[in-house]
Design goal:
Keywords: Signal. By secondary structure, the protein is α+β, with helices and mostly antiparallel strands. The chain has one domain. It is built from 4 helices and 8 strands, in the order ααααββββββββ. Strands 1, 2, 3, 4, 5, 6, 7 and 8 form an 8-stranded antiparallel β-sheet that branches. β2 and β3 form a beta hairpin.
């Protein structure tokens, strides 16, 4: 029995040694993470440039999920999220939910009418390379938005497409998101070439 244990332990040590040899030198020194603060060097659009009036309303409308097949799939999270009231573009509520590891899906609910919008062309946002900034309060890792602005910023890879990984700046027009600007995430020298 002791001989088998030593053989197993020896194989484990060998496996760890091989793994160490296969790890690129300096990989831990170059994390491919980025935040909205990193985008500032590219002179991005700012929330203050897209200010809107904030609608004063009592109780927010319930999310209307019966009219939309996609909304029915996310009925619980949409209904719960809509009760929190507006957090975007004066009268809208952004409701988000996870879709796997480092993945975010979201919808926009009109707090006045309850209408649910799923942004065309954005099924999800991969947020594996996104990090927050110290002191930053963000409700969702891959989104930045404000109640008094119709600017929505996504951080990550839209639809998990690495060519679309970066900062996307959208203007909400009351029914859809219009892309204003896209800033690709800069690749670091230590990252593997794709």
């Amino acid at each position: 029995m002791k001989m088998v244990w030593w053989r197993s332990a020896g194989m484990a040590v060998l496996a760890i040694g091989i793994a160490a040899l296969c790890t690129p030198v300096g990989a831990e020194e170059c994390p491919p993470l980025f935040s909205l603060q990193d985008a500032n060097r590219f002179n991005p659009p700012h929330f203050d440039e897209y200010q809107v009036a904030v609608l004063k309303l009592g109780r927010p409308a319930s999310a209307r999920i019966d009219e939309d097949t996609q909304a029915k799939l996310y009925r619980s999270v949409l209904k719960e999220g809509a009760t929190k009231g507006p957090n975007f573009a004066g009268q809208y509520t952004i409701v988000g939910w996870g879709c796997g590891s480092s993945c975010l899906q979201f919808a926009i609910v009109d707090a006045r009418t309850g209408e649910v919008f799923f942004p065309a062309g954005i099924h999800n946002i991969a947020t594996a390379h996104v990090q927050g900034v110290d002191g930053e309060e963000a409700e969702y890792t891959g989104l930045r938005f404000r109640l008094d602005s119709d600017l929505l910023i996504t951080l990550g890879a839209i639809n998990e497409d690495e060519r679309r990984e970066g900062w996307s700046f959208f203007k909400w027009t009351g029914g859809k998101l219009d892309l204003i600007r896209f800033i690709p995430r800069p690749r670091q020298e230590c990252e593997p070439h794709r």
